[in-house]
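In this supplementary section we document a worked example of the pipeline. Step one takes a protein sequence of length 190 as its only input; no multiple sequence alignment statistics are reported here. Step two produces a three-dimensional model, which step three serialises into C-alpha cells for compact storage. The input and output of this example are shown verbatim.
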Amino acid sequence: MAVTRKRFFDIMASFPSGVAVVTTVAPDGKPRGLTTTAVCSVSASPPTILVCVDLSSRTLDALRLRRRFVVNFLGHGRSHLGLLFASKTDDKFAHVSWRETSSGLPLLHEDSLAWAECCTVHDLEVGDHVVLVARVEDGGVEPELEPPLMYYRRSWGVWSPVHEEQEPEPVAIAAREISARDLRWQGAEF
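The serialised model returned by step three reads:
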C-alpha cells in the first residue's frame, strides 16, 4: 500500500533541493519556462541529466516538441523567479533579463549560477510526471562564488559553506565533495 499524497509531499519536502528554471522555445517562437527542484545528474559519460515535469505544465508541450532546453540553476535572492516560473502567468519572460544561447534557447544569464543546455534523448511518463532524460551539450558556470537558492520544507533558503573566522572569503573554488557537516542552513528567503 502506498503512502498518502500528503505524507509523500511531507517526506519529499524534507529533502533539500536546488532550484532551477527550465526554459525552451515553443513552436510559435515564444519562450516558455517552468520552475523545478527535480533535476539530477545521471551520467558523466556521456554527460546526462534528468528533469521531471508535471503532466499539467503549460511548458511541457514545448519541451516535447523542441526536444531542447536550458536548465538555469538559480542563485540566492532569486526566489521571486522561482515563484514566477512556477505560476500560470502568460508571459513569464516579460520582466526577466534573458538572452538566447547560440542555438536560440532562453538563458537567464543574470540570475543563474550555472546553466546546462540539453537535448532530450528519452521521454518517460511516470505517474503524473514526465521524466526527460537529456544529454548536456553546452553549459557554463558563473565565475563569482555565490550560494545557490534552495528549497526545503516548503521554504526558500540558502546553503553556504562554513568558514573559520580567520579564513578569507574565497573568490572561486575548485569542485570538491563535502559532507553535510560542512554546510549550514542560512534560513528562509522571503
